Amino acid sequence: MARRGAPARRTVCVHRRARHDYDVLQTLEAGLVLRGSEVKALREGKGNLVDAYVSLRDGRPVLHSLEISPYSHDTARTDGDTRRNRGLLLHASEIRKLTATLREKGLTLVPLEIYFQGPWAKVELGVCRGRRKADKREKLKSREAQRDIDRALRRRR
Q1: The whole model's pTM is what?
Q2: Is residue 104 part of a domain?
Q3: How does pLDDT run across 4-31, given as a tens digit for each residue?
């Protein structure tokens, strides 16, 4: 008999610039409120997180500017708004902690990745602090130096 473990995690889209532009201090997982064929469109990989951001409105987290292109086999196509605001599902205690954390100056909530965990669409959120241009350059230099060190060590073996 097969063992049941955690459901497989299948990534839909990743916000690559987020880890470059921000220092991620903490991550958390939230569910997405989706309509109709948006779930099927995400399963096709038609999500885009490039301009997306999260805000807290009336004590509820809302994901803005997440683009989900229309599902290819959708016949209704009544909903033409691909960048509508979508609610995020979090426990009340998580929202309270998040609100308290975000009161600190300079912190923001950024969507990092959308994925499916079993049948549910989830979004990974990061509590982030913005990087300055010099910090970004320093990070790139240190990454390049580490890559050179790794290359040199591989040649030695």
Answers
A1: 0.80
A2: yes
A3: 766 788 999 999 989 888 989 999 999 9
Tell me how far apart the alpha carbons of residues 119 and 98 are, in angstroms, rounded to a whole number: 26
First to last CA, the chain: 44
3-state SS record for 42-91? HHCCCEECCCCEEEEECCEEEEECCEECCCCCCCCCCCCCCCCCEEEECC
Return the amino acid letter for 147: R
- 27 close to 115: Cβ distance less than 8 angstroms: no
For residue 31, how many other CB atoms are within 10 A of its CB? 14
Sign (positive/negative) of CA torsion 12, 18, 24, 30?
negative
What range defines the domain where residue 97 resides? 9-131
Please report whether residue 139 resides in a domain.
no
Task: Answer whether residue 82 shows pLDDT above 60.
Answer: yes
Q: How high does pLDDT run on average in the chain?
A: 88
